[in-house]
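To whoever is on call:

I kicked off a structure prediction for a single chain this morning and the downstream step that reads the tokens threw a length-mismatch warning. I double-checked the sequence; it's 128 residues and nothing unusual in it as far as I can see. Pasting both halves so you can look.
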Amino acid sequence: MLALSLRLYFENPVGRILEHPDGYALVQYKADPRQLDHLQAFLTHAGRLLQLRSWHRLLGDQRLMAPFNDDERSWITDYWLDRKANEAHALYGAVLLPHDVFARLSVSQIMQEAKAASHDVSAISGAG
């Protein structure tokens, strides 16, 4: 069996963004605490990768992630998701949910806010 060749696109203290050969961005969050400006840069680069490759699919691996704080949740829903929703093509995303229950709750809150704002967001639970 051949190993998939994932190409690193961007990395900072928040996590890594990888280019998957099947045509989607793999966004892997680290367990470390975040700063808002690092998260903003991280997700901005994820958006740039999608735009650069004309991709419309993203897999967020949040299994190790710490909970989002209020400022992060607000920025994600009010800026990043809203900006992606207003682009010409739909963004299809799936999330491997965090192991940490509080992180799962913060992701769930973002998903509820996104659905209320008519963004299509899906999640799957991570195994392991």
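Update from on-call: the warning came from a stale cache, not from the record. Cleared it. Sanity check on the structure: The mean pLDDT is 84.
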